[in-house]
Specification:
Layout lengths: L7 H30 L5 H20 L8 H10 L13 H11 L2
Length: 106
């Protein structure tokens, strides 16, 4: 979907939900990292920790920018990861919500 397919209000709702999801992903990651860091006791565990963090950074940076062309996919992914809820998306038109719901199923 292009920016023209979104009303100003819908863009605002989607952007707010997107930013909420990003913030929650960081909060969840911090909790995981604190737990994992307590288990570091070998060089291998350090490298696994590094690999995990690198992977998480890649995922985070992949959704770092709000883009209406990809936002339905990003919001569906955030729904699947329990970073946002459908309540966060109230106000989007039903077609967009239906697409998000369908993508979130897979």
């Amino acid at each position: 979907m292009s920016a023209a397919d979104w009303t100003h209000q819908e863009q605002s709702i989607a952007k707010d939900a997107f930013e909420t999801g990003k913030q929650r992903s960081i909060e969840a990651l911090i909790v995981i990292l604190r737990k994992q860091s307590a288990l570091l006791d070998t060089p291998e565990s350090i490298w696994r920790y590094h690999d995990f963090l690198s992977s998480e950074r890649y995922q985070y940076e992949g959704r770092a920018e709000f883009d209406t062309a990809n936002i339905l996919f990003n919001l569906a992914d955030m729904i699947k990861q329990n970073l946002i809820t459908y309540e966060d998306l109230e106000g989007l038109d039903t077609t967009k919500l239906s697409k998000i719901k369908a993508m979130a199923m897979f």
